[in-house]
Predict the 3D structure of the following.
Amino acid sequence: MPNKLPLPSPCPPFTIELTTSLPLSLSLSLSLSPQLWLKGFMASLGSQALKPSGDVNEGVPSDQTVLQKHVAFFDRNQDGIVYPWENFQGCRAIGCSLLVSTASAIVVNLAFSQKTRPGKFPSLLFPIEVKNIHRAKHGSDTGVYDTEGRFVPPKFEEIFSKHARTNADGLTGEELDGMLKANRVPKNFTGWFAAYVEWKILYSLCKDKNGLMHKDTLRAFYDGSLFEKLEQERASALKKAHNKIEK
């Protein structure tokens, strides 16, 4: 049992045993005044409340970054490698056209394969290693992923604080174009092209009937959960269409 330390009146000492999922700083077996313990407890809750809603770093396996989780959807057999045909299958699963899916499978794997396989001999199968996907991060982007592939909440919020004018929680096509121009690094033509293609495909898939791409949708895009949702929606739509034809 912990030693009791005398505390001045009117705060008599007491011992509290706390086992909780809160941060380690609140897993206590200490003699504290009620005021001090309550202050620490509220501070911890406050620090959690200040996190952006749906912080995508939460829920990600400790051995996997958010960027790796984002890319892992296209690793269809979950072996840690994305081959061109898996890229194609993933694109088709979320509703991309045959042309876009084919182009993605060719261009993305050609561009990223060797970057994610440092020190290895080039492969004609053009595999992308998910664990090294941060090495393929291009310029002229939003900075929402850092150099290690981790999610950066302030950069995510900056997308909307700087560029969302019509609706604070979404981007219109025009606002998206403005963001792409603002993010351009001089003479980084490859980065300009990559960013333009990525965002235009995303916008075409995810805009609502009013042409707005919502903040929650974009957050789900960054952690990869959006892809799973789109795949489920497309599979459900195809099933309904098939059943309708049979009837």
Residues 11-34, 36-55 have pLDDT under 50 and may be disordered. The first strand starts at residue 14 and ends at 17.
